[in-house]
Each structure stands twice: as structure tokens, then as C-alpha cells.
Amino acid sequence: MAGKTLYDKLWDAHVVRQHEDGTCLLYIDRHLVHEVTSPQAFEALRLAGRRPWRVAANLATADHNVPTTDRGRGIADPVSRLQVETLDRNCADFGITEFGMNDPRQGIVHVIGPEQGATLPGMTVVCGDSHTSTHGAFGALAFGIGTSEVEHALATQCLIQKKSKNMRVRVDGAIPPGVTAKDIVLAIIGRIGTAGGTGHAIEFAGTAIEQLSVEGRMTVCNMAIEAGARAGMIAVDAKTIEYFRGRPYAPRGELWDHAAKAWRELKSDPDAKFDKEVALNAADIKPQVTWGTSPEMVVPVGGAVPDPIKEPDVVKRAGMQQALKYMDLRPGTPMREIYLDKIFIGSCTNARIEDLRAAAAVVRGKKVARNIRLALVVPGSGLVKQQAENEGLDRVFKDAGFEWREPGCSMCLAMNADRLAPGERCASTSNRNFEGRQGAGGRTHLVSPAMAAAAAIAGHFVDVRELY
Amino acid sequence: MKIFDKLNGLVAPLDRANVDTDAIIPKQYLKSIKRTGFGPNLFDDWRYLDPGEPGMDHGRRRINPDFVLNQPRYQGARILLARDNFGCGSSREHAPWALMDYGFRVIIAPSYADIFYNNSFKNGLLPIVIERDAVGRLFQECAATPGYGLTVDLAAQTVTTPSGMVFRFEIDAFRKHCLLNGLDDIGLTFQHLDEIRAYEARRKKEAPWLF
């Protein structure tokens, strides 16, 4: 019998029961909750007279709607305010721990989960947010769910699920200087497409993935959903285990030793079989910039906007033409000649301390270009913000002309006041360049934090490797 | 959940690949704490020429006459014909809510994003997968035939065209059973609470740090 993949092991360990057609009742260890996808679930729970099955398995925070400017005045938009207050009330009513808007531990749900040790290796982790795949970086099975499943997880601590297929993406070799986890994952999506992982759980493996820090691995798994996979994951190693030592929700003492021993087994067997395999060479990966309205529309920074005429597939060609029209770009334009209006450094993809350090290293002692109307740094959590301030990074950004904001999802999806005006063009460290994602009519180019910082200084895209 | 068994309905074609859930229902409408009322804002950025905000009178907004759903011949459509990777992006269940609220009960496409596919079933919206060339053919027929309708039979797992051509589709037995009977997932899981308790008791011994 062939060995098991990491995904097989995580799945098998959580099956409560199996239906004849393979559909399973899967146990959920951690449920992360935020204000946007939970109110209807709590309302339904209340209407049915039910209580959360295991209150302590839930952890909540408000991140999508919260303002990133002065919070002393509360939330100006009454609709956003009601949604955040609804989360506060639901958590209070049902006894769920919430890091509210003014708690120093508040932040983007996918940043605070691991930061608190609330996400641990070997867990099943769900949240009503597609970027829940982030938590797979720690050898966990983590995936996004809709509101009906939020209610199901609250009521039963389980979900009805059908197992996905196994896919492995290997990236091997030394990672070139100036190339980051973001560039690696964008290159993967460029290769396999936004539906390349549909129906699969992706395990990222190979020596390049092993070289990445734990935070870099979170960036890679975060965008598994942009490759179509609900779940992305990476085997546990010494770096993973060390990351959790001493975190508030992590086990301690004897329990820590016991857990760490079990976590070391969280990897695919050498003879495990995958339904689909893809391999990339790290040496071939260059800093990436997206040019279109899907994350697969990506080229190296030294490249140019592609020509749809060269695309043989008619449906794809039409998509490229629509994207160029929306993005107001012409085929053949070198990426470096694309000028920007706004810069956004933030989101669950790239708002952790290492991301801010990488951006600050590029910005230090320089000034934001005059054509940039707004350059934002939005830390992923209150604790990331505090750490960055302890290191003086806030000064580096502010001296250069960046705005230093309060934590939240911010301009990744523009549910709060941070957004692009119609026609504005932005270099963004977030995860989606869809039409209108950062504001109706706004144009998004996805890049790494160092590339966004370099673009802020130059006013247009530049190859960050030339700055090293 | 609403029962789904058979439907004969008008088809509207949305001829683009990778239609994401941000396009299906833009983020400003996700601030609602309700499950209903998203229909007027389905495909908001494409449907209207002016920017939309929650609470507006959408009947008074400027309609984009070029957007397919605004064409008179597609008014009252119950079936949406779409391209590859429909519903990609965010996990917002507001996307199937908006499609249902608008009046759609069936989507036909070559492929869907996993979360959207899953969310649709929870709401009685049937996402049918038919292979790419066949979907291409339906797009052609739909464009050429005013009032083009299809018959969907879930029990038989078939889509039948006006000319009598039949396409069979696959669906998980469990999902089919739930849709045909309007079964609610939580109600089903509540039949297995003892098994959940037994799992928890076993797991507490194996991995006590999880509790």
C-alpha cells in the first residue's frame, strides 16, 4: 500500500464518520470568526435555539470593516459599525473570545491565529474567509467556508466534506536574492493558472519551500486559493515547531513535549502518491508583477504586458482583452514603464513583521515619488504594529512619506474607507487583482512588499534586485 | 433549504471565464447582516453605470444597456450559462444568495471554484458541470435562439435542449439527496451527536493540547 500524504493524514485524523459516497463528517479543531461572514450564522443559530458546540474552539476578531485611522472616534460608516457591533454582541452572548477593535491583539484573522498559537500544527482550521488556507503553512488542514458552514461549525464543531485530490507543487533550489515567497507563489499561479488546483489540496514542498521562513510559508499557502485550491499546506519542520514555543494558546510543559513529538510526524510519507505534481526551479523565478485582473495574469518585472493575439485559446484571449481594457494597458508595454498612483503594503498575504522589515529596508532614507498620491502601510495585527514600532520601522516609513495605519484588511478589499478611486493604479502586496477589488474602477498590480516599496520610491515598477 | 427537482427555465449567457465572487456581489454589500436582498446588486459593477452603495434606491440607478442581464430577452432567466472557474475568489456566501435572490436556480459551466460550488448547494442553487465543448454549443444555441430555455432534471441528472439533445451531468449522491429532499446539513449532523462526542473523547486522549 502506498504511503499517505500530509493531507491524507490530516484528513484521516479528523473523520468522525463516513457516508457511503465518501462524504465525511469532519471534526474542526479551530474556528476563526470575523464580522462579515458570521452575522447570518449567529442569527440562524439563535433562531434554532442552539448554542455553540464547543465555545473554546472559536476565536473572533473584527478585521474587514475596521478603520485604519484614529479608532478613538469609532466607525463612521453606520453600516460597517452595525456589522462590527453585531460581532461584539454575538461573541458576548455566546461567550466566544473576541479581540475587539481596540484590543492590542486585534488584527487580520489569518495573522492573529498563528500569532496567538490558536492555530497549531495538525489542526483542522476553518473560517468564513477563503484565505484560511494561510494556516496550512504549519502542517494544518485549513480552508475557507461559507456562512452556512460557519453556522454548521458553530453548532456541531464538524463540517460535512468530501475529500479533495492530492496535488504537490515542488520548488527546488536556492532562492535568488530579491525573490520572495510572494514571487514564488505568483510564479506558481502563473504556471498552473487560477484553476490549476481546483478540486485539490496542494502541498508545497521542495528545498526552496524548506528555506522559507514560517512567515514566508504563510504567504505561499495564503495564495493557494488563488491557484484554485481550498487548502494549501507545508510539512512541519523544526522552524514550524519553534515558531509556536511560548505563544499564548500553545501548549506548555509536558503537554508541549507531547505535542511537539506528534507534530514532527506531520509530513507526507516518502512513497506517498499525488494525483497531480508540478515542479518549479527556484533559480528561474524572478520578482513578479501582475498585469491583468486575475492573479494568473503575471509576468516577471523585466517582462512586458502580453499580447492577446498570441493566445490560441479563444476564451482566454477574450479574458486577456477584457483585462487590458479594464487595466488601461497596451500589449508590449514594459512593466517598468507602468506608473502608479497608490501603494498598499498590507493584507493577510503580506502584513507580518518580516514583510514590513523587507519593505522598510528598501524605503530607508528615501522618499516616496511625487506621483504617488497615497502610500499605505497597514500592519497585520496590533502586535505586529507594536513590534515594528519597537524596531523603528514606523519612523522609516513615515520619514519616507508613507502613512502608518492601524491593523486590518484595509485596501486589500476596500470594505472600509481605504480604497482606490476609479482609474487609480496601485502596487499592492495583497492577493487579488480582480476588477473593482480595491475600489470600483481601481487597477491593482500584485507584488511583494519589497517590490511595492521600490515602486513607491520610483513611482513606477522597478526590479528590486537592482537595489541590492 | 429549498427543494430542487426539476426546472424548465429561460437561459441567460454570461460569456466570460473566471467570474469571481467580487464581481458577483461587490464588497460594499457584504456589510449587510441579513441573508436576503442581494438580488438588485448581483453583478453590480457590470449592471449599472454609476457606483452603487448599500441603501441606495437601485431602481433609480443608471443601467448599463450593454450588460447581458439587462437585455430584454433575458428578463426572467432562471438558468445562468457561464464559463470556466465560475465563482472563484472569496468565500462569501452572499454570491449564491445574490444569484438566488435575482431568480437563478441553476448555473451551467465547465468548472467552478470549490468554495462557491459548495456554498451553492447549501442554498438550493444547483451548479451543473458540463464539459467545455458542450457548454460552448449551448452558448451558440442560446445566442441564436430568442427565448432559449433548458430543462434540468436533477433526479435523472440531465439537461435537455429545445431540440431534444440531452446532456448528462455528474453530482455527488449525498448532495443530490439533500437537494431533492431539501435537507438541512445541520439537521443531518444532529443525528450523529453521539459519534461527535465519542470522537472528542478519543481525541482528548490522543492530543489533549487541542482541548
What features would you describe in this structure?
Helices cover 31% and strands 17% of the residues of chain A. Chain A is of the alpha/beta class. Chain A has 2 domains: 6-276, Aconitase, domain 3 (2-Layer Sandwich), CATH 3.30.499.10; 287-467, Aconitase, domain 3, CATH 3.30.499.10. In chain A, helix 3 (78-94) links the parallel strand 4 (58-61) and strand 5 (97-99). The longest helix of chain A is centred in the first third of the chain and has 17 residues, at 78-94. Chain A starts with 5 loop residues before the first helix and ends in a 10-residue tail after the last helix. The mean pLDDT of chain A is 97. Chain B has 211 residues and is an alpha/beta fold. Chain B has one domain: Aconitase, domain 4 (Alpha-Beta Barrel), CATH 3.20.19.10. The two termini of chain B are 33 Å apart. Chain B has helices at residues 21-24, 44-47, 94-102, 114-121, 132-144, 173-181, 185-189, 193-206, and strands at residues 6-13, 79-81, 106-109, 126-129, 149-153, 158-160, 166-168. Chains A and B meet through helix 2, helix 3, helix 5, helix 10 and helix 11 of A and helix 4, helix 6, helix 7 and helix 8 of B.
Produce the secondary structure layout.
The complex is a heterodimer of chains A (about 475) and B (about 210).
Chain A: H1 6-12, E1 15-18, E2 24-27, E3 30-33, H2 39-47, E4 58-61, H3 78-94, E5 97-99, H4 109-116, E6 124-127, E7 141-144, H5 147-156, E8 158-161, E9 165-172, H6 181-192, E10 200-205, H7 207-211, H8 214-222, E11 231-233, H9 238-244, H10 253-263, E12 276-281, E13 288-290, E14 298-300, H11 314-327, E15 342-345, H12 353-363, E16 374-377, H13 382-390, H14 393-400, E17 403-404, E18 425-428, E19 443-446, H15 449-458
Helix pairs in contact in A: 2-5, 6-8, 12-14, 12-15
Chain B: E1 6-13, H1 21-24, H2 44-47, E2 79-81, H3 94-102, E3 106-109, H4 114-121, E4 126-129, H5 132-144, E5 149-153, E6 158-160, E7 166-168, H6 173-181, H7 185-189, H8 193-206
Parallel strand pairs in B: 1-2, 2-3, 3-4
Antiparallel strand pairs in B: 1-5, 5-6, 6-7
